[in-house]
Structures are given as structure tokens and as C-alpha cells.
Input
Amino acid sequence: MDVLCLTDHATTLVLGAMLILTFYLFGRRTFSYFKKLGISGPPPVSHLGNLIEVQRKGFTSVFRYWREIYGDVYGMFLGVNPTIIISDPEFIQEVLIKKFSNFTNRTPFIADEIGNLSVAAAKDDHWKYLRTVLAPFYSSHQMRAMNTMIQTCADTLMENIGKMAESGTGKEIKKLFSAYTMDVIAATGFGIMVDSQKDPNHALVEKARDIFRFSVFNPALLFSLVLPSAIKFIEKSGLSRTVLGNQIYFRKFCKQLIQQRKETGINENMHNNLLNLMIKAQLKGHEKLDPEEEKELHLENITDWRTKRGITDDEILAQSVVIFLAGYETTASTLTFFTHLMATNPENQQKLYEEIVEVLGEDLPDYDNVQKLPYLDMCMDETLRMYPIGTSLDRQCNKACTIKGITIPEKLSVRIAVDALHYDPKYYPEPEKFIPERFSEEAKSKQIPFAYLPFGGGPRICLGMRLAKLEFKVAAVQMIRNFKILPTEKTENPLILDDTVLLAAKNGVWVKFERR
Output
């Protein structure tokens, strides 16, 4: 009896050990991927890949750290997902431009039926069509038409900064600029005045604040990285809501807005905002399309998409949400980082002030005259070099190819480490220093192509770049013209950055203002 008990116990131990070993090996099933391609990289841990090191060093800093060890091209694992990391400008140019047809799409991310319809997530001809619908909104003609609306929002921003100056105390400023960019996006993109600057606790700003603040260790996201085959289950089960978060609020808001606009109709004399452009691109009877109905349309080119299909209600909703959120967050963050750099670099701030006074005098900033401020451009470009809001870009290889002797298999994700690129001393000596002169016309003529990517590059370059630059410049000109920006006892230098999807200061950005 004792022998039988011992045998049963031994069998249990062996089976348990085999189960653990199987679990361990299953979690390493993809880890020989880069060895077969002859690509080095950080050693992965079963199931988690390199996520522990990513979490420990931060999603931004870890790419700088690995570049020092493994060079400009190496492989790493997000969970069990192989990803090649690149910060070599020649390699980047191949991916974004020369071999764009091999890298047309972004790597799939957890979303749902609406999220997958946005221009950021759409693929192939679907993406091309959506871009043609949205592109007219960002033309130079449209930018000029937006001048008055942006200036109105900037006037309110100056009133709020004036109140801060009168208080004589330092404050955290991200919320200040978030309200400004929210008002600009609402007015220019959707033809509505939300006046969030006059209501600091406005629901739109409050709900938007935490949209991009989630970690790779979010339960649903972590599950998808460890077990990629579960992504569809996560999306359909509702677990994706832990990633989508407050996007649900914005969808309800935008859905009501779309319905109201359709009910009231579009007056031809109305400002041709983004929402109006999308509604005009609809074809009657095609507001909703099931997959079978769409197949029967035989869409062979973009003209067919425009004349036979049009844009659906769900697609209008998806674009509305992504424009609201991406447009709000990125420019607000850039203004926040710019203001920090002005406070900590008073000589540069004075030089910019002198340029504004000399070139513009008392004229209000607009789309045309802000182009005559080269030092403002230099300061903006250097801000985006030091603080690229999107710290990396990704593409998925849809057709195997070879770049610089390295084979890129189909389905492999390619991630461009923008932050590591911007801080590479080969391209930017003393990268930790704020030196706007790096972007003088003479310096830019010598710059290595694709060594600067704050808005991405190639056909999928940021669609809203022109609007983002305009609303940034209008606010920056008015702020520098009217106020001195000073550091406070809470001003960090350098800033401690938060490990979130989009770049942010962990402890906020603190400055104080003084009227000139």
C-alpha cells in the first residue's frame, strides 16, 4: 500500500513537471524567430517576452537603452509577438516610402467594430478611401478658413493665462492647453462651440484626459500579447472596454452630434468642417453596409469607393472619435512641452519674442504670417525632437521582402523607435540639450533624411499635421508676445516622463507667467 502511494505521488510529480515544462515551452514557442533571421536582440522570458524590461525601463527609454547594446536594427518580443525595432534612417525610408506597398498597414491592435473602421486602423483600399474623404479638410484653403475660429480659442487661452499671471503662483499647465485644443478641434472639425476653456471641469476634457494613459500591462492588452489568438475573443467579449475606456463616452457624444447634423441639414454657406465633409461623402441607402452587400459593389479603385460605396454611419463615427482624441491630445502635449522648454531656456524665449515683435508687430497670427517666423519653426521642431508625442511608429509587413540584407517575413511587425532616433548623437549631438538651431534652413539641408519623424512619414504621415502646426503656432505667438514664462520650485529639469501610450510628464509641467 505504501509503495502504491509513493508510486501515485511520483506519477503526480512527473505529470506536474511535464505540465509546467509544456506551459514553459509553449510560452517560448516563437522565441527562435529572430535567431533564424540572424537578428540579435534582448533575451525574452517565457510568455512575457521582453515586457518585464519594457515595464522596468519604460516604453520610451528602453529603446534608447537597447539601441546602445544591439544597434539600429534588432528583434524583441511583446509577449510572444516578434517585433523588429529599427532606428536606422535608411531602413526607415525603405519601410515608409520605397517599399510602402509591403508595409501599407499598421499592426492590428485591440479594438472593436467601430475602432477598426478608423483611418488609423483601416487597411489597404479602405484606408486609401477614408484618407481621400478626410484630406480636403486639411488643405491650405481650409486652414485659412479656420483662422478666426482658432484665434477666438487662443483669445480665451490668453485670458486664462492672464489670470494665472495675476495670481503670481506657478501651476500645472497641461489642463490649460488641453481645453484650448479641445475647443479648436470642436470648432474647426465639427462646427460646435464647447467652451471647455471657460469650464475647466468640462466633461469632454475630463473624459479625454485618461484616454491614452494605459500600460502594456493592462489586463486585456497583456492577455492579447501573451495569447494573440485570443484577440477576437477579447474584442467580442467586451474585455476591450478596459483599453477603450472613455472612448465610449466620446462615441455617444459624436453619435448625437452626427444625428443632430443630419436632422438640421447642411447649409452650403456653413463652414465646411470635417463632419460636414464626411456627411456629404455618404451615398443615400449606403449609410449601413453588411459585408455581403459590399462585395456585390465590385470596388476596383478609389473612384468606385467614392461613387458606388461612400462612407457609412459607423465610419463617420469612427473618424469623429479619432480626430477628436488624437487632435486634442497631441497638440496639447506639444504646447505643454514647448512651454516647459521656454521656461527653462530664457535666452531662446527672448529670441523668439524679439522675432515675433519684429515680424508681426501688432498683427494677429494667421496661417500665412506665421510662416514668416523661422525661429518659431525651429523651436517647434526642436520641441518635437525632444518630445515626440508618438514615441514609435509601427507597420506590419504584408509581403516578405529584404531590406539592407535583412529578410522581413510576412506578418512581422516593424516598429520605428522615433525617440531613440531623435536622441541618437550621430544625428543630434548633445541630444539632451534644447538647441533650436538644429533646424535652421542650413542645418536642415544637411540633415539625414528620415532621422526626424514627429509626424511619421510616407503616405501614412499624420493627416492632421498642418492643423496641429497652425493651432500650435497661433497659441505660441500670442503666449510669448504677451507673457514671460518662468520656472517655479516645482519645475523639473529634466522632466520625468510617464510610461503611457503617448508621451506625457509624470508629475506634470509647472510654470508661472508674468505679463510683459
